[in-house]
């Protein structure tokens, strides 16, 4: 299996196409990237900026270019010795008129050829009005009011012979079997000589097999005859302008008559139009989280799998695609079975496996299931692991106190998360909980085994979900792992302990879960349960709690657990070694299109953990300065203390490295206000997406404008503090970049992050990237030597990002020269000693005689910076050293980042590297044996006693 050396994530959209990507390939090759890692590029909803709303998985997205444009991209990649990973979306599709499969389902209901494509409950328990129908919560007001205002209308498409319901941008089909409700109302005088033909068409439409006829033959007959009858209507209108006018007049009359005329026809359709607020309670199709226009796909059906993967498998067979990233497998009914089927299909298409990753969020201590046929995850676990290295655990008490004193809130994140998950189940995902509870009730009533009522089961089930410690389990036919048993036990035990109700109901739920592998009804329930816990966790934690709990927001990352404050060096080494042993080719990411903050923003905010007292003093001072800009709404400050605290951390993270001019400051104001609006709505404390508090949002926007005024008092107080944080944050950024480039796994660079990138959550992190600037910076680097590299670190220079760009290029060059070393080489944790031993993390990769040694600083806020440079001052490392074990002690090394030769010194029979010497000219070091080709160029040999 071909494993990428390193990947570079590109976000394709109509403003960055296949042709744009092809033009970028030479630059990426020069940077050292092995594979382009492309966002989804199957046909998505028009105007999609991300590609995850696929509407046709059988074709490429025309907004990205033609088939020839795509083939040219593939050729250019091959010409440069590069491949590509494709991001695919098996869990859901974007739904609407652009999705022909969904449109057919709305037209024909359960009798649609594509009814099996979508995860629709056609007989939802307790909802008789939805039998055989799909709820469409698209209306801005209640159904009757909307219809009476004339916002819902009917049109006739003479070119297709079809009647269509319209509601603003929505276009919905009419069941052909209900066409007689329109056609039979034509006055005979208006139909003229064709009234008999119209009557025959109306009768034939009415004789179509009904939507309840779901056998294959009836479905085929219905589809064939409906198409033929529509063609007949098209032909009739073309032959008779009088008929076409009569149909138009009939439609006009129905629209004018309003509710009484249109409601009977709408009530007869395979869908029910409803106010958007109804979705949480009544929706009867599985969604991506709570997004109504992303409908779950039943990829577990073999025919659906074949149809939705046909193009992807063809691209793999042709060698156009070299690997896959599987989006959101936790949403699937049975991810293990899906990944096994995908592996077999790939082997059948390509003659062997291809590199495959899953977008899987892991809780602390959790691993992907061992039976998954993948190379690992997309790296959220590494993101949080490496970020934690730069969070000082000794600062936790101070940061907690600073937060408590500013906000007046506790630091109980687990309690907050529990409340957020309960809120999600009460509101956005209530309908799914009801469906689960009805299924559980049916199991309880079977054979009158248990006497639990619906509400009792619903309450107990919601508590089990709320206490679930991971996103989901993976119970399947004949299989339940020890890890899954443990997670279920934790959830049931904690839910029972906190309920105060009948403990028997929790024991019953646990029993159903455990017997699922051998009981069909229990297994169906557990499949649904497992598809539910993930969205509840994601909505409760990532989309709400992370925006409420603002103690240190660099910890509030996808896959993160903010209550865990920092990662020790031994833990970092242990988890790297475990990854090498179990998932050596997993992806290593630090920024993605989904991260809440870019890697460099987090690296800055981490610095606060080292200076909690200074941070507290600063925020107290800023609060006083900005008091006149705060408004009072209903007796409460706007912004609230919690939102204001988030704002200050956000500004520290995103403040430009260059002194902003008027235009830059205006852009920063706009980005900050947009981010704060999103963060506040996600938090659902003072405002929300469903009930925006315009007064509060306007007050916060005004506060942002006020504090960022060049004439105000805040910026003179803020900027000196921010500059110090930014300098240490840059050191953190270089450290985490080198660790990513050399740890076990496949490093990924998110677009634009090869230099400093100060972006927030989407859409901020999907802004256009200035690749031209990056190409020019790369061209200036040249061959490294100590004096040239040191100039990159000078004030006024390092701010442009060249130190990070240089580091990435040289690290990727080293990976290219030693592929086996980094693909599977041994991981050797190195011991540090001396006054600042805790400020270093060091390890070696070893494969035979091939060696690479990584040395990175951490927690450097209190190290005196050199005058006019990003580097710590000479002597800052004092007597700190890195011990080389015997298997590494025999070689002479050079630092590939500076070109310098590096020597060891001996003490009490052991060999050491002196940190001050190794890190004298660049903040991090990557050492390789000096005998390599090109070793010694532009080097300065140090003696052991220099």
Write structural notes for this entry.
The chain is an alpha/beta fold. It folds into 5 domains: 7-91 and 301-378, Alpha-Beta Barrel (TIM Barrel), CATH 3.20.20.80; 100-288, Maltooligosyl trehalose synthase, domain 2 (2-Layer Sandwich); 395-411 and 597-769, Arc Repressor Mutant, subunit A (Orthogonal Bundle), CATH 1.10.10; 412-550, no CATH class; 784-929, Golgi alpha-mannosidase II (Immunoglobulin-like, Sandwich). Helix 13 links the parallel strand 14 (323-326) and strand 15. The chain is globular, with a radius of gyration of 31 Å.
Task: Summarize the structure in short.
The protein is α/β, with parallel strands linked by helices and 946 residues long. The chain is 45% helix and 14% strand.
Task: Return the CATH class of the largest domain.
Answer: Mainly Alpha
Percent of residues in helices comes to 40-55%
What's the story with the biggest beta sheet?
A: 8 strands, parallel
- The strand line-up of the biggest sheet is 16-15-14-5-2-1-20-17
End-to-end separation: 48 Å
């Amino acid at each position: 299996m071909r494993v990428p050396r390193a990947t570079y994530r590109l976000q394709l959209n109509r403003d960055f196409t296949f042709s744009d990507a092809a033009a970028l390939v030479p630059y990426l090759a020069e940077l050292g990237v092995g594979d382009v890692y492309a966002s989804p590029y199957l046909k998505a909803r028009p105007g999609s900026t991300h590609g995850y709303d696929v509407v046709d998985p059988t074709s490429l997205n025309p907004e990205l270019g033609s088939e020839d444009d795509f083939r040219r991209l593939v050729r250019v990649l091959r010409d440069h010795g590069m491949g590509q990973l494709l991001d695919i979306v098996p869990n859901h599709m974007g739904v609407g008129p652009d999705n022909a499969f969904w449109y057919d389902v709305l037209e024909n209901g359960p009798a649609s050829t594509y009814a099996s494509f979508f995860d629709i409950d056609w007989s939802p328990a307790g909802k008789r009005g939805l039998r055989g129908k799909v709820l469409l919560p698209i209306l801005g007001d209640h159904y009757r009011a909307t219809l009476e205002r004339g916002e819902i209308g009917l049109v006739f498409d003479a070119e297709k012979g079809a009647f269509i319901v319209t509601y603003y941008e929505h276009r919905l089909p009419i069941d052909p079997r209900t066409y007689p409700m329109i056609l039979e109302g034509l006055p005979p005088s208006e139909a003229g000589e064709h009234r008999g033909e119209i009557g025959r068409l109306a009768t034939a439409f009415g004789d179509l097999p009904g939507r309840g006829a779901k056998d294959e033959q009836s479905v085929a007959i219905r589809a064939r005859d409906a198409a033929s009858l529509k063609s007949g209507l098209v032909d009739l209108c073309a032959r008779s302008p009088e008929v076409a006018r009569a149909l138009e007049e009939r439609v006009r009359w129905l629209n004018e008559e309003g509710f009484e005329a249109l409601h009977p026809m709408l009530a007869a359709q395979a869908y029910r139009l409803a106010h958007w607020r109804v979705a949480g309670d009544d929706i009867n199709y599985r969604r991506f989280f709570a997004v109504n226009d992303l409908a779950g796909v039943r990829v577990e059906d073999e025919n659906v799998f074949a149809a939705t993967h046909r193009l992807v498998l063809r691209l793999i067979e042709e060698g156009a695609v070299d690997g896959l990233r599987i989006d959101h497998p936790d949403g699937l009914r049975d991810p293990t079975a899906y990944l096994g089927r995908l592996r077999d299909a790939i082997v059948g298409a390509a003659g062997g496996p291809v590199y495959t990753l899953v977008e899987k969020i892991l809780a602390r201590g959790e691993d992907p299931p061992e039976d998954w046929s993948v190379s690992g995850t997309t790296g959220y676990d590494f993101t949080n692991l490496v970020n934690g290295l730069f969070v000082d655990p000794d600062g936790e008490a101070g940061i907690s106190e600073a937060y408590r004193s500013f906000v007046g809130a506790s630091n109980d994140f687990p309690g907050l998360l529990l409340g957020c998950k309960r809120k999600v189940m009460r509101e956005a995902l209530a309908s799914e909980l009801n469906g689960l509870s009805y299924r559980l009730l049916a199991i309880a009533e079977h054979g009158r085994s248990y006497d639990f009522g619906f509400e009792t089961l619903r309450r107990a089930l919601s508590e089990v979900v709320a206490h679930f410690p991971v996103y989901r389990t993976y119970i399947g036919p004949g299989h339940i792992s020890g890890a899954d048993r443990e997670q279920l036990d934790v959830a049931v035990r904690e839910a029972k302990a906190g309920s105060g109700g009948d403990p028997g109901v929790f024991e019953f739920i646990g029993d159903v879960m455990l017997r699922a592998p051998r009981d069909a009804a229990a297994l169906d329930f557990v499949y649904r349960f497992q598809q539910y816990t993930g969205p509840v966790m994601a909505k409760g934690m990532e989309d709400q709690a992370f925006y409420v709990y603002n103690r240190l927001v660099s910890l509030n990352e996808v896959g993160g657990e903010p209550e865990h404050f920092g990662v020790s060096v031994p833990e970092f080494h242990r988890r790297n070694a475990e990854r090498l042993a179990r998932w050596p080719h997993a992806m290593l990411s630090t920024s993605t299109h989904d991260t809440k903050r870019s890697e460099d923003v987090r690296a800055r905010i981490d610095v606060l953990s080292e200076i909690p007292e200074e941070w507290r003093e600063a925020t107290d001072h800023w609060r006083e300065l900005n008091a006149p800009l705060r408004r009072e709404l209903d007796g409460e400050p706007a912004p609230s203390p919690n939102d204001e605290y988030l704002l200050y951390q956000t500004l520290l993270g995103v403040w430009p490295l260059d002194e902003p001019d008027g235009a830059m400051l205006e852009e920063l104001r706009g980005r900050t206000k947009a981010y704060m609006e999103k963060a506040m709505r996600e938090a659902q404390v003072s405002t929300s997406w469903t009930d925006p508090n315009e007064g509060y949002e306007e007050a916060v926007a005004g506060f942002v404008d006020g504090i960022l005024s060049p004439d105000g008092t805040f910026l003179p107080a803020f900027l000196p503090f921010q500059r110090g944080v930014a300098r240490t944050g840059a050191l953190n950024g270089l450290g985490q970049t080198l660790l990513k480039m050399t740890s076990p796994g496949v490093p990924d660079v998110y677009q634009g992050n090869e230099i400093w990138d100060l972006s927030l959550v989407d859409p901020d992190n999907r802004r256009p990237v200035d690749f031209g600037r990056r190409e020019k910076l790369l061209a200036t680097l040249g061959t490294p030597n100590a004096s040239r590299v040191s100039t990159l670190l000078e004030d006024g220079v390092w701010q442009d990002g060249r130190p990070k760009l240089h580091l990435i290029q040289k690290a990727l060059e080293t990976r290219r020269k030693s592929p086996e070393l980094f693909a599977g080489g041994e991981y050797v944790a190195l011991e540090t000693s001396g006054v600042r031993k805790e400020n270093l993390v060091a390890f070696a990769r070893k494969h035979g005689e091939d060696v690479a040694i990584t040395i990175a600083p951490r927690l450097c806020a209190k190290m005196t910076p050199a005058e006019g440079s990003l580097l710590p001052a000479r002597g800052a490392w004092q007597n700190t050293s890195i011990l080389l074990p015997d298997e590494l002690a025999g070689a002479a090394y050079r630092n590939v980042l500076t070109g310098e030769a590096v020597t060891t010194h001996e003490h009490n029979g052991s060999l050491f590297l002196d940190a001050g010497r190794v890190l004298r000219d660049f903040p991090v070091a990557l050492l390789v044996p000096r005998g390599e080709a090109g070793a010694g160029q532009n080097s300065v040999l140090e003696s052991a006693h220099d």
